[in-house]
Design a protein that fits this description.
The protein is mainly β. The protein has one domain: Carboxypeptidase-like, regulatory domain (Immunoglobulin-like). It is built from 1 helix and 7 strands, in the order ββββαβββ. Strands 1, 3, 6 and 7 form a 4-stranded mixed sheet that branches. The chain has a 3-stranded antiparallel sheet with strand order 2-4-5, covered by helices on one side. It is globular. The termini are far apart.
């Protein structure tokens, strides 16, 4: 298992950080390949712990419907703008996310 942490920085509003596997066969409700929403703490920091090794897209989203998170078409759009990272078991990585210019 690994840990990814960082800051979700937005211009207005509070973004929700999300991580999801690059393996499209795991894009379904209940999959370990889709994380729960991550609300940044008061200084904008977030962390995702206990995720399996693999390649993940990281995104900070300011506005979306919760049901969108299980829609492969929506995930394809998010993936196109997301940051992609690879993690190994035991990794501790830091990656900041930004919404807006």
């Amino acid at each position: 298992m690994a840990l990814v942490a960082g800051a979700a920085l937005a211009l207005g509003g509070v973004p929700l950080g999300r991580a999801f596997t690059t393996d499209r066969t795991l894009w379904f409700q209940g999959s370990r390949g889709l994380t729960s929403p991550l609300r940044p703490n008061t200084d904008g920091r977030f962390s995702i712990s206990g995720i399996p090794a693999g390649e993940y897209h990281l995104a900070a989203l300011a506005d979306y419907e919760p049901s969108d998170w299980y829609n492969p078409h929506f995930l394809e759009q998010v993936a196109a703008a997301a940051i992609t990272i690879s993690i190994k078991d035991g990794d501790k990585k830091t990656q900041d996310l930004r919404i807006g210019p």
